[in-house]
Every structure is written in C-alpha cells, then in structure tokens.
Design goal:
This protein is α/β, with parallel strands linked by helices. It folds into 2 domains: 4-266, Metallo-beta-lactamase, Chain A, CATH 3.60.15.30; 335-424, Serine Threonine Protein Phosphatase 5, Tetratricopeptide repeat. It is 44% helix and 14% strand. It contains 16 helices and 15 strands. The chain has helices at residues 4-12, 63-71, 88-91, 94-103, 117-126, 128-139, 224-236, 253-279, 284-290, 295-298, 310-322, 337-348, 351-364, 367-383, 388-404, 408-424; strands at residues 27-31, 34-37, 43-48, 51-55, 78-82, 110-114, 145-146, 152-153, 163-165, 168-171, 178-182, 191-195, 200-204, 241-244, 250-251. The strands form 3 sheets. It has a 7-stranded mixed beta sheet. Strands 10-11-12-13-14-15 form a 6-stranded mixed beta sheet. The longest helix has 27 residues, at 253-279. The chain is elongated, with a radius of gyration of 23 Å. Mean pLDDT is 93; it is low at 429-443.
C-alpha cells in the first residue's frame, strides 16, 4: 500500500511527477486514529470513543466500496458525518452509511453541515435537468444518472443534515475537539475543520491539488476572496497535517504553508488585478487581456490548470463584483445569434466563405487563431444550420480547439461541441468531453 504522506512529500519536493489525485478505494491510516479512503471524493475518518467521524461520504456509486474499505480499518459504528459541502460527490454516499447503521441495528449518525447545504439541495431539485446537462458536457457520458429517454438528470434525493451552523461550531465526539469553520470558496456552504489535538485540518475542496475551482463557467458563483481568506486562516494555525477531499494528504507545516500559500496568493493576485482593471473602467474583454499569473506558478503540481483555469476565475470575479454586462454595448440587448450570423454571411459572400476562413485559421494554429476560427465557424453554422460541410468543419475545429486546451472544463465543452457538430455532419463521433482526468463532480 502506498504511503500517502511520503508520496505527497515527494511530489511537493519535486522528486516525482506521479499524480496526486487517485481513485484507489484503499483506506490508509495517516495518523493515529485518522484514515483516508481515496475515492472520487476522499472520505476522511477519525476514530473516537463515540464512534467514527466521517468527513464526506463520496459518490453514491462508490459508497459501498468505500465502506468495505473503511471496515478493513475499523469496525466501529459511524457516529457523525460532517459534510464539507453539498456537492454530490461528497454527500451522495451518506444514504449507504445510514443503511449500514440500520442493518446493524445501530442509531443513525448525526449529520453536520453548514446552514446553506439544505438550500443547495433545494436548488439541485429545481435544476436536476440542467445539472445533468452540465455534467454530461463536463465529464462526458450522459450525466450522473439518466432518464429512460436518455435525458441526463441529476440526483434529487439527499440525506439532509440533522445539525447546521452559521459561522463556527465546536464539537467533541468521544472527547476529541473539532472546530468547524464556514469559509466560502468553491461553494457558499463550505466547511473546513481544525483538530487541535492532532494539529490537523480537514479542508474539503479548498485545496484540490490543481488550480482552484473558482471559475467554472457552467456553474453558480464562486468566491475567490473568501477562499483566499479561509486559506490564510488555516495557515495561521500552522497545521502539521492537511486532509483534502481530492488528492493526497500532506504532512509538515512548511509543505502545507507552501501549497496553501501558493493557492491563496494566486487567487489574491487575480482578484487584485481584476478589480484594478474594473475600477479603471475596462470592459470584460479588456480585463481578460490585462490580468495574468506567473506561468511558473501554474507549472506547480498543486496549481496546474487541468480542471479550472485563471481565465474562468477572472470572469467569475467580474460576475461577482460587476454583474453580467461586459461593457460591450451591443451585447446588452443583442440580436439573435442566427440573425447576426446570416448578416455576416451575407456581407462576406455566404456561409462557405466563413467556413473556409475558419478552417484556414484553425490550420494556422495558435491561441488567437483558434479563438477566431471558433467564432467564424459558429457564425457559419448558425447562418446555414443544415449545411453538412459547415458542420463537418465545426467538428474539425472544435476537436482541434479541445486538443489545445489544458482544463477539463474547456476540453469538455469543446469536445461536446465537436461531437454535436460531427453528428450533424453524419460523421463518426470523435472523442468527447471526458479525457480521463480525475475531475471533481460538482455543481
């Protein structure tokens, strides 16, 4: 069995390029009475005299295997579940935990979460179809579950918390002190926990071993400033053990300070640069051209933009502080995309001209050319929606665009666009949104 702390130390120290995020379903003890089950979302277990405390429960589809692995470490009942937040890969397995307790004739565990988690569950039930489509694009396939007609849908049933809190909550299961802190970041309902006796922090998704998921273009508001503040609060405690929900645990105050400090600093830099540009009166498009991070920072294994990316975070900062108007007057009340596309095609000599130029730009390569090619091919397809040649060109261009991207979110959307265009052109389907990266299912 892999020594998780030793592996994470070697990654941080630059001694190996092995992946930090794994789905082994193995349970590893990382400190006295503290274990981690590596799953799609990790489950952190703490043994106490009043039963196990579980931080998160993974996806429903992984829950039974997670429990079986956990039972190889401890047969104690689960006394408490703490949701780090309400994403389905963190709460979905709770029903299996309760079912296990019921089958053994044990009382159901207490379920603790921030007070915003029930509101999230309500929103999920209201937007099941939409979240299904999001996950189909982001991760490939047909979403987390599917209706009989093939429409992707999202879970609608959740184990509700039995205890909620607003700012902080002190609990002492079995005499082990734990301080739960609310800290907005990827979500508005996030909890991170400090265990002073073990000098350990359970951080949920506030650290995910890649660039922070503070931008996600398909999902609700993220909170970069609050996220950085939560990380700074953790750093002030000088923890010796960090237990994230995605990726390896980390040991050693200096290593923890390095990785958390880098994440906080990246978010703070994007925030300060974006707000400065907004305050100078720049449009969103101009802001995107002005704000940059040090490329060397993005080469670090804990900040690589393989899931989210800085450009999306800038847009989310704009949305949080500036609303949805991007400073371009024609986009305040724009024409229908199809109307604009037909006008452009008419002016240029027809959709075929747009297709030819889009393919030329795509063939030339480079980020700017690929961006332009996508605009032109979208216009061509909107102007001539039944044109098989335009659809075939769109499939080619979006496959090329996908291959040039690093983040799972961009690759998923561009891959889905390529597949949809290929279907319209009656071509064989190409590679879709999922590329094997261990993305975090969330909404």
């Amino acid at each position: 069995m892999t020594d998780l702390l030793e592996l994470s130390s070697r990654i941080i120290d630059g001694q190996t390029d092995e992946p930090a995020s794994r789905v082994t379903l193995e349970c590893s003890e990382v400190a006295d009475g503290v274990a981690v089950v590596e799953s799609f979302s990790n489950v952190v277990a703490v043994g106490t005299d009043d039963g196990l405390v579980l931080f998160d429960t993974s996806l429903a589809s992984f829950a039974n295997k997670v429990l079986a692995s956990l039972r190889g470490w401890s047969a104690d009942r689960v006394g408490t579940i703490v949701y780090t937040h309400g994403h389905v890969d963190h709460v979905g397995g709770a029903a299996a935990v309760l079912a296990e307790a019921a089958a053994a004739g044990r009382p159901a565990p207490e379920v603790i979460a921030h007070q915003a988690v029930p509101d999230r569950f309500t929103r999920y039930r209201m937007t099941r179809g939409y979240n299904g489509w999001i996950n189909a694009r982001q991760f490939g396939g047909t979403g987390l579950t599917g209706d009989t007609d093939g429409t992707p849908v999202f879970p609608g049933r959740f184990v509700e918390p039995t205890v909620t809190y607003e700012h902080t909550l002190n609990i002492s299961p079995g005499g082990i002190d734990m301080v739960l802190h609310h800290g907005r970041g990827e979500t508005d309902d996030h909890t991170w926990t400090w265990m002073p006796d073990r000098q350990a922090i359970v951080v949920g998704d506030l650290f995910i071993w890649c660039f922070p998921n503070a931008g996600n273009p398909q999902k609700v508001q993220r909170f970069p400033a609050d996220w950085a503040a939560a990380l700074r609060k953790m750093l002030s405690l000088r923890p010796e053990l960090m237990l994230p929900a995605h990726g390896l645990p980390v040991a050693g105050a200096d290593r923890i300070a390095l990785v958390l400090g880098d994440v906080a600093g990246a978010l703070e830099s994007l925030l300060s640069q974006t707000l400065a540009a907004m305050n100078a009166g720049l449009s969103l498009n101009a802001v995107l051209g002005e704000v940059h991070l040090d490329p060397d920072l993005l080469d670090r294994p804990w900040l690589a933009p393989v899931y989210d990316e800085p450009e999306f975070v800038i847009r989310n900062i704009w949305r949080q502080y500036g609303g949805w108007y991007d400073g371009y007057p024609s986009r305040l009340k724009p024409a229908a995309d199809a109307d604009l596309a037909r006008e452009l095609a008419s002016l240029t000599g027809g959709a075929a001209v747009l297709v030819d130029r889009a393919l030329e730009l795509c063939g030339a390569g480079g980020d700017t050319n690929l961006r332009l090619a996508c605009h032109l091919i979208d216009a061509a397809c909107s102007a001539a929606p039944n044109d098989a040649a335009a659809a075939a060109a769109a499939a080619t261009i979006y496959r090329t665009r996908r291959s040039a991207e690093t983040s799972l979110m961009a690759r998923g959307i561009f891959g889905t666009a390529a597949n949809a265009a290929a279907a319209r052109a009656e071509e064989p389907r190409g590679q879709g949104g999922h590329d094997g990266h261990d993305g975090q299912t969330s909404a």
